[in-house]
């Protein structure tokens, strides 16, 4: 029989077997039935709430323009890497469908406290914390960013570039901001659909001369004399 243990748990199979040793009486079965029944009840309530949320969002969409392909806002937001159905619901619930309150994506990101605050002391400008913001929006966006950063997508590649020169938490906040800015465009224009730029977008658009100088300088710092000849 194939072991259900996966990944790093396979190294702990002896310990897992040991934890399963013991007695399972009718008393334990009764407690387990209660827990499973409570879990089923909560699952049913969550499904009911999800259905009500989607119904209300459809009512909001009914008063505005419909996209040419007929896709709803939740379906279009769900196409963003890392954004699942629950995150899409949270975005619409917290910011609505009327983007006139936010003239640009930057205004929305600033309102959500996903933009670092500028701190000026004399002639010196530094970046401060983003602030607390709306936790019902920032929480799902943070989870979406945490999921998107692992993928072979533009957002995943952007995260891996950012962590080279900033803390991981700040880089994840930057990805959360990018997701919210993408959501602004999709909500503001129902005709738009998300299209991923690809994980190699940065390499394809990198300034070739600057990249050459950076690589040459890195080799010279290691003690090499570099002569470049175009192939």
Summarize the amount of helix as a percent range. Answer: 55-70%
> What portion of residues belong to β-strands?
under 5%
Query: SS-based structural class?
Result: mainly alpha
Q: Order of strands in the sheet with the most strands?
A: 1-2
Number of strands: 2
Low-confidence stretches: none
Radius of gyration: 25 Å
Which series of helices and strands comes N to C? HHHHHEEHHHHH
Q: What is the general shape?
A: extended
How many helices? The count is 10
For the sheet with most strands, the description reads: 2 strands, antiparallel
What is the residue-averaged pLDDT? Answer: 86
Distance between the termini: 57 Å
Description:
The chain is mainly alpha-helical and 231 residues long. 57% of the residues lie in helices and 3% in strands. The chain is built from 10 helices and 2 strands. A two-stranded antiparallel ribbon has the order 1-2. β1 (118-121) and β2 (124-127) form a beta hairpin. α2 (26-62) packs across α4, α5 (105-111) crosses α8 (168-188) and α6 (135-148) crosses α8.
